[in-house]
Amino acid sequence: xxxxxxxxxxxxxxxxxxxxxxxxxxxxxxxxxxxxxxxxxxxxxxxxxxxxxxxxxxxxxxxxxxxxxxxxxxxxxxxxxxxxxxxxxxxxxxxxxxxxxxxxxxxxxxxxxxxxxxxxxxxxxxxxxxxxxxxxxxxxxxxxxxxxxxxxxxxxxxxxxxxxxxxxxxxxxxxxxxxxxxxxxxxxxxxxxxxxxxxxxxxxxxxxxxxxxxxxxxxxxxxxxxxxxxxxxx
Length: 234
Prior knowledge:
Family: Belongs to the bactofilin family.
Order of helices and strands: HHHEEEEEEEEEEEEEEEEEEEEEEEEH
Helix content: 10-25%
Structural class: alpha/beta
Strand content: 25-35%
Protein name: Polymer-forming protein
Radius of gyration: 48 Å
Pfam families: Bactofilin
Shape: flat
InterPro entries: BacA/B
Number of strands: 24
Largest sheet: 8 strands, parallel
């Protein structure tokens, strides 16, 4: 019996030495598969936990901002070509005509004309015309004439329509308003039936005008002149 009693005491002492001071059993070692499962659970909680879901919902509530690229307008000026288009006598063109050069119109165009260069008309136009300069000699035009430069209406030419230009020399007949930023010269054979708005007007003896003339583009304002004159008299 003494042998078994000593053996029991030795085993109890060995167990007590292995136990920690707080008397609790040591933690069970974590198996590799449990470690992977625990790590995955923590990662899942970090990605799909309540805090992360609230943050993701905030992101989804913000409207997506789409940046649209607005193309810049093409401000490059087109160069006038040296080529000259010719509409010969007896030729009739039905429809709009455009050219990057100049044009000599001897025939007839029933439509609008838009050229970057000069437009020389000795034929007929039934439509609006636009060019850098317009010269009409013995021409018949029914439509508006818009020139970025000068307009010259020669003798025996008849224009039924308004004229817009920076300067004008008229020796023919015009039925329409003339709006010119610069000077207007009316030759002795000119016949005007319409109003004239310009910077200055030179009327040669023999010209006939039925309408009003206004030098609204002049550097001197007559209204201001007389207002200052009346103030000086007081």
